[in-house]
Design goal:
five-stranded mixed β-sheet, 3 helices, 7 strands, elongated
Length: 169
């Protein structure tokens, strides 16, 4: 997802634009591309371009309790500054940014939002995704998905090390 910002860089600081986004982006190597949609606003700053995005997508994840695949809606909100490396009027290099890992505006005055969106999507992904809040998970003895109904396993006996806690009831 690339945006040419050469005209915006020629305008005064504080000038802005908004764009509707609807593109497919590869979020992770082991997943296919997902459709990302929403709105991105860009603002000309002293050092370059400030990008603010409010995007939505849906990832196919695996539930951490029952191990079933499910679609998880994801809201991606991000704010990043892309730093100019080439002066827009003279075409001379401005030097590399002082902060390592910062996003840059390339020599053709184009910003690529793909990496920023990918990073923020990964940060927005739940660490322990659940297909639903009340997911019952799997039976620890037979592996039956307890969301589909109870299994035929006998009730487990209580570990004797925990028996003292039963007396507190």
């Amino acid at each position: 997802m690339q945006i040419n910002v050469s005209q915006l860089l020629k305008e005064p600081i504080g000038s802005s634009r908004s764009y509707e986004v609807s593109e497919t982006i590869d979020i992770a190597e082991d997943r296919n591309g997902v459709m990302v949609s929403g709105e991105v606003s860009i603002l000309h700053t002293q050092r370059g371009i400030l990008v603010r995005g409010e995007l939505n997508t849906e990832l196919e994840l695996t539930c951490s309790r029952c191990l079933c695949a499910f679609n998880c809606p994801l809201a991606i909100n991000f704010e990043e500054e892309y730093i100019s490396t080439i002066d827009i009027t003279s075409g001379l290099p401005l030097g590399s940014p002082e902060e390592p890992g910062s996003f840059i505006i390339d020599e053709h005055h184009v910003i690529d939002l793909t990496e920023a969106i990918r990073q923020y999507a990964l940060l927005s992904t739940p660490m322990k995704p659940l297909c639903r809040e009340d997911c019952a998970g799997l039976c620890p003895q037979c592996g039956q998905n307890l969301n589909q109904g109870p299994c035929d396993c006998s009730v487990r006996s209580i570990d004797p090390r925990w028996s003292a806690l039963m007396k507190l009831q």
